[in-house]
Every structure is written in structure tokens, then in C-alpha cells.
Amino acid sequence: MYENLYEKITNALINDGYIVIENALEPFLAKELFVTSLHLNYKQAGISHKSTLDTTKRKDKIHWLDGDAESTCKYLAFTQGLENYLNRHLYLGLRYYESHFAIYEEGDFYEKHLDAFKNSKNRVVTTVFYLNAEWNTNDGGELIIYDKDDVKIQKVIPNGNTLIVFISESFPHEVLPAKRQRHSIAGWYRIDEV
Fold first, then answer.
1. Helix (H) or strand (E) holding 3
2. What are the φ and ψ backbone dihedral angles of 61, each rounded to 5 degrees?
3. In the chain, where do the E strands start and end?
4. Of the candidate ranges 14-18, 50-54, 81-85, the one whose mean pLDDT is the lowest
5. Is residue 51 situated within a structural domain?
6. Would 136 be classed as within a structural domain?
7. Under DSSP, is residue 89 helix (H, G, I), strand (E, B) or coil?
8. What whole-number distance in Å separates Cα of residue 34 and Cα of residue 126?
9. What is the DSSP letter of 140?
10. Which terminal CB of the chain, N or C, has fewer other CB atoms within 10 Å?
11. Integer angstrom CA distances of residue 19 from 38, 111, 121, 129, 167
């Protein structure tokens, strides 16, 4: 069902290291996931430093994804297919995918960061899938993607059904302050043990 999309993502990871795809999945799935995200119990996210949680660098709240809802089962089926395709064509040795719903309230942000450190054995490929319909530049909350030299290469408006996939250790990124409630799913393909 998604073979052409998997191929497009794989080619982009080889050539550019990242891709932004608008209207990536079926529109009804993005809507279903958005509705699902409205009824979850979120917890404050933060950056872990040993036993403490630093909440000064990010303000979003998260809820780890599971297959309890039909919409999340469909989304996880898509991500499992992508994992299989990437392993088959790029020999990445991906072992599993973890993801969470993220909600940014007005004023929430996430400072510039990498999802994995160079040569680390954890997150290899990052995905971000946006759920809000009809988002525009006045709503803020854009994702800024930088290259390895810290040069801004793309500003992504978090419009519903937009999918971003990139090599986790290669692209610093940040989320600008949102001006209204912003919903997404962030995920990572990993090569470490579960």
C-alpha cells in the first residue's frame, strides 16, 4: 500500500538525509489521529539529566503511543512497513520504533537539539507527523531544520498530514513557540535493544 512512499523516503534519506512530505498518508488517518490525541492524558516532557528532568529547554507534553486505538494501530502499521523497507534497502539494522503524541500549548517550544549523538547506538531515523488541520504561518510552532554546520535548511509549517523523516544524528532542529494548541507524533527508529 505504501511502497511508493517508502521508496521516496528511502531515496531522500540516501540523497539528502531528510524529507518533508505534505499529504503523506490518507487524510482520514491524520484526522482520526488528531481526534485520538484530544482524549489522552499527557505528561510534562523534559530533558533527562541523570535523575532530574530539565523542563527549561522544552515545554511540550507527551503521551507514549500504543496500539490501543484503531488510528494508532494504522499509524504503527505504516511505521512498521517503513522500518522493514529501510532495513531491506539500507541495511540499517533497525530493531524497533518508539513514538509519542506531543501537544504544544500556546507559548510552548523545544530548543535546538539532536535526537541522537554521533556514533550512538540508539535513535537512527526520526519521524514527525503533524495532526492539526489548516495550520498557517501566523500560528507559529514551526520546525526549523539545520544542517551539520548549523545553517538553517528548512522551516516546516506543522500542517496536518505532513510527514518529516530524517537521520537522527545529522540534523539539529527546534520547535518555535506555538501560538495555538499544536498536535503531532514524534517517533524514532532505534538499533539498541528494547
1. helix 3-15
2. -120, 150
3. 18-21, 43-44, 47-49, 52-54, 61-64, 96-104, 110-113, 123-130, 143-146, 152-156, 163-167, 173-175, 182-190
4. 50-54
5. no
6. yes
7. helix
8. 20
9. B
10. C
11. 27, 21, 23, 12, 10
pTM for this predicted structure: 0.94
Nearest to 21 by CA among 32, 10, 31, 37: 10
Q: Which domain holds residue 79?
A: 3-45+56-190
pLDDT digits (tens, 9 = 90+) for 128-166: 999 999 999 999 999 999 999 999 999 999 999 999 999
Task: Answer yes or no: is pLDDT of 113 > 60.
Answer: yes
Domain count, the chain: 1
CATH of the domain at 87: 2.60.120.620
User: What pairing do the DSSP bridges indicate for beta strands 163-167 and 123-130?
Assistant: antiparallel
In a domain, 185, yes or no: yes
Q: Which residues pair with 48 in a beta bridge?
A: 53
Q: Residue 50 falls within a domain, yes or no?
A: no
The SS3 call for residue 20 is: strand
Q: What are the φ and ψ backbone dihedral angles of 68, each rounded to 5 degrees?
A: -70, -30
C-alpha distances (whole Å) from 193 to each of 107, 119, 182, 189 are 36, 16, 32, 11
Residue 1 grid cell: 500500500
d(CA 39, CA 67) in angstroms, rounded, equals 15
Mean pLDDT, the chain, integer: 94
